[in-house]
Design goal:
Elements (H helix, E strand, L loop, with lengths): L24 E7 L15 H16 L4 H6 L3 E12 L8 E11 L3 E10 L2 E14 L10 H9 L1
Antiparallel strand pairs: 1-3, 2-5, 3-4, 4-5
């Protein structure tokens, strides 16, 4: 088998950067559909990740960016590099969920979010999700575009 890939490292190293959006929270509301559930009538575990991705996408849109325009403009996409999830309680068909995304760490080539899926005031699932910025042509790590970093710092 081929050797494992090297650990993710930006070309110029990873440096923490202060940002106004660290700690700010995006919250979206999403419903549980039949397609989201398993044979037991609860949300299939992997579908929580889809709910979380929607919240991160809306966080990016709130900054004025679309994933598609980042891919075609500066030529970058954000790929999930690491996920750590705690499943606490099940969501069920027709539940209306609040899904949050809060930027907790930013480096030159990655973003880390704290995320949760809640039903009312009850946390059903929480996660830490690290995204790596990669070149959209070759999927190699690259720095987050300066314009986007500046926009995040301005928030």
């Amino acid at each position: 088998p081929p050797p494992p890939p090297p650990p993710f490292q930006a070309e110029d190293g990873i440096r923490d950067m202060p940002t106004g959006l660290v700690g700010s929270e995006m919250c979206i509301r999403d419903s549980v559909y039949y397609e989201d559930t398993d044979a037991g009538g609860v949300v299939f575990y992997a579908n929580y990740l889809a709910f979380m991705e929607r919240a991160r996408t809306e966080w990016l849109r709130e900054l004025g960016y679309e994933n598609s325009s980042l891919a075609t403009g500066p030529g970058v996409v954000f790929a999930v590099r690491r996920v750590e999830v705690d499943y606490l309680r099940p969501a069920r068909l027709d539940d209306v969920l609040d899904v949050t995304a809060s930027l907790t760490r930013i480096s030159r080539a990655s973003l880390t979010f704290g995320q949760s899926v809640c039903l009312g005031s009850e946390v059903l699932c929480r996660a830490s999700v690290q995204l790596a910025c990669v070149d959209s042509r070759n999927f190699r790590p690259t720095g987050i575009p300066r314009e986007l970093l500046d926009r995040i710092k301005d928030e």
